Amino acid sequence: MPKIKVEGGYKLSGDVKISGAKNSAVALIPAALLSKNESTIYNIPHIRDIDYLIEILKLLNCEVEVIEDTLKINTKNLKNKPIPDTLSKEMRASYYFMGALLARFKKVEICFPGGCNIGNRPIDQHIKGFEALGATVTQKKSTFLIKAKQLKGAKIYLDIPSVGATINIMIAATMAKGKTVIENAAKEPEIVNIASFLINMGAKIKGAGTDKIVIEGAEELDNGIVEVCPDRIEAGTYLIIGSLLGKDLNINNIIVDHLAMLLSKLKEAGVEFKINKDKITINKARKLKPTNIKTLSYPGFPTDLQQPFTTLLTQAEGTSIIEETIYESRFRNTEYLNKMGANTYIDKNKLTIKGKTKLYGSEVVATDLRAGASLLIAALIAKGTTTIDNIEFILRGYEDVINKLKQIGAKIELIP
Ligand code: EPZ
Hints:
Layout: E1 3-7, E2 12-17, H1 22-31, E3 38-42, H2 48-59, E4 63-67, E5 70-74, H3 85-88, H4 96-105, E6 107-111, H5 124-132, E7 136-140, E8 143-147, E9 155-157, H6 163-173, E10 179-183, H7 189-200, E11 204-206, E12 212-216, E13 225-227, H8 232-245, E14 246-252, H9 260-268, E15 273-276, E16 279-282, E17 293-294, H10 306-313, E18 318-323, H11 334-339, E19 344-347, E20 350-355, E21 363-365, H12 369-381, E22 385-389, H13 392-397, H14 401-406, E23 411-415
Parallel strand pairs: 2-14, 3-13, 9-10, 17-18, 21-22
Antiparallel strand pairs: 1-22, 1-23, 3-5, 4-5, 6-8, 7-8, 10-12, 11-12, 14-16, 15-16, 18-20, 19-20
Bound molecules: ligand EPZ.
The site of ligand EPZ has 27 residues, from helix 1, helix 5, helix 6 and helix 12.
């Protein structure tokens, strides 16, 4: 199994270009099935989740063309087929094919999605939405069969502002008869990105990015064009790295508004940075202050940056508390941070971090995507050499991460 090897302690300078957002791209690709013709998606990140989704597109008889970071998808010969668990279990986002195939064919058969092991992660809100639109959902072991004679618009109140459920229901409702209202919708920027793609295809959607989305169903949708928005989680990860090791480190191709909460927390922690349109220049903080974090859905502090931020807080002088309100078990990185010298302990959904602690190179394991990012940051600041195992988690969510870090001065390599 390949590993990442890092020699810590090197200053990082120069330019990092942020890629298209994983959590947007993985929804845009299934959404392309709604177009009866060819769709074009620009700024696609080259990460493993995209490769799996392209395999599913080909299984469904789509014509797919990848030209650098542009993906063209033609659905003129689209065929509805059951999606096997060999593909659907590779990532959480395979479930967006539920909404897309339900909209196009009124029928979909797919196995339960995969995804990082950070909690129970049910899909009851997705199913609640599909049933409200008139579908029947049956589950045999891990296979879902979802069918509808006709999808009819409905008023749907989500129990929680679920990102996935908001997107999946929006996709399905785009071709339902009549009006659908999603209340208590998630407001993440990725949802706006998907809505803009569907609107470009001819869909009638209002309110994406707010907690109330109104969709007027369309008979059919034509080809769509969209650009994947910059990955705010990748950008946040590099900003945290810059707070610890940066020397005039430029994080380029970002949407500053999407990072507002992280930037306010970095400021609270004593980090200084310069914002210049779609670029932030950041330097290593002289002294990091302890800071408390509570993860919430957007625009609250993003749960996906909780683990990377934990590593930063091990370097703050004092005690910080992190409260994780989105997932049940998203502190699995701390076992390895403590092995490297951190002083953290868990009490139910709260993590206490006592800093400042020197971190030492060690052999660690990525337990999930953002835990892997947390350990990568720890390895970059640790004294000595660290090897990280299970790195496919990291490669799933961070495009070209080893080269991007090498180019700014990190001593990092892939060990096959
Ligand atoms: C998306 O997951 C992201 N993944 C996650 O990023 C992100 O952490 C999450 O949104 C929250 O921002 C993708 O977009 C592919 P949710 P999703 O539905 O849609 C519970 C990463 O690291 N829930 O908002 O699965 C669920 O268990 C990944 O890039 C239900 O109970 O998140 C969780 O506790 C990790 N029932 C909470 O809601 C449901 O039907 C938030 O889930 C759906 C979700």
